[in-house]
Fold:
Amino acid sequence: MSKLQIKFISLFAGIVISLLLYFINPFNVDDTAAKVLAIAGLMITWWVTDAIPMPVVALIPLVLIPLLNIAKLETTAAPYANPVIFLFMGGLMLGLAIEKWNLHRRIALNIVQLTGTSGNRIILGFILATGLLSMWLSNTATTVMMLPIALSVIHVMKENNKGGGNIANFSLTLMLAIAYASNIGGIATIVGTPPNVAYVGYINKKYGFDISFLDWMLLCLPIALLLLGAMYFVMVKWLFPNRIKSDEGTRELIRSEIRQLGPLSVPEKRVLVIFITTAFLWIFRSIINDLQSTVKLDDTIIALICGITLFICPSGSAESKNKVENNESLLEWGDTSKLAWGILLLFGGGISLANAMENAGLMEQLGGWLAQFSANAFVLVLVITIVSMFISEVMSNIAQVIVFAPVVSSLADAIGINPLMLGIPMALAASVAGMMPMGTPPNAIVFASGHIKFRQMAKAGFVMNLIAVVLITTLCWFFIPLLMKV
Structure:
């Protein structure tokens, strides 16, 4: 079956499901709610089947909600300018600057050099470097950046291997480590991965509650670090041991790569200062606000200050990989062609759909219906974490969080518990799926390297999924009540 045929079948399936939801009305809701449910069915079907690009699907509420007289266009369009979208935009701009001036490559190579060049230590170095970068860059960009470095290391290891150790296991583990560390590292900060941003935006819109950058990190950074540590031991000590000893050829490759970068350039220094300042303001925003009343910082304002500063600050150097002129800023508008504009649209469309579903009473009804299965709150958190993780193996994690955030929030309201107890585990679980190549973009990128077989990814991903379920459920259960209260 051709791609065109699959596309038309997917488009037709979405329309059929939408019409069935409206005319059959299986949940016996009023006419307005039935229209909203039909729009949701259409969008979710097209998101899952990838019938048309996801950002394009996210524009559907702007057309259908006003057209069907569900809400005014002004009301429908407002979520596309949600503050959390601009928070993510600022984070993306910072990532672009780090990538443009090659600061990310310098950080990664130096971490790998510090950890050592035995098989296990190289893998540890890549896990730490990838996880750290993924906290601030997009998971996809981090994976794309780390992949060629890893492939070079694998090539050198093969050339210098004297028959000791298992090169195949080393290659496999290194590829998986990059993908999984990209996924896991992203959960540590709000801007680290789109599902985090989508969920924080929804909570702010629904409850008027601001999850601060610091509160998120206090909860999620330990989860990420524990998952990265667990991944290292599972991969190199249990599933795919390589037993490769330290090698001079690999050491020389890393040193050579660092030498080629030369000393820290002026643009790199300036980006690094802006990066550190932004992270400092994000982490200590509440303390700064408490100490004075002249200005009131929030995470979105800080992100936008960072983004604007990158366009104002001159690079200070005429020598770079882009052969730029002296008067170029750290970021030029042309650089934003690489910005994930589609993700920003996706956030807006998802929030708009969620608002319509909530206003129509659908989320309240669904939460009330699910409440009958929630006798034990801990078991409910566990079940939601498991369901979220395994659904994200076959569905876009951004779309998944957009769809499920209103559901779990309404369920929490129905049974009278903190909505973050269900929502944060759901959002985190959506980002760490590792069994399927299509589960996340990093999975797909490393799978295409040819070093991984499907059954190997499924095996490693299943084990990591189980570990993630236990860690996410347990830590969220004990620490969310201490750190966050809506």
Q: What stands out?
A: The mean pLDDT is 83. The chain has 22 helices and no strands. The two ends are 50 Å apart (CA to CA). The longest helix spans residues 454-483.
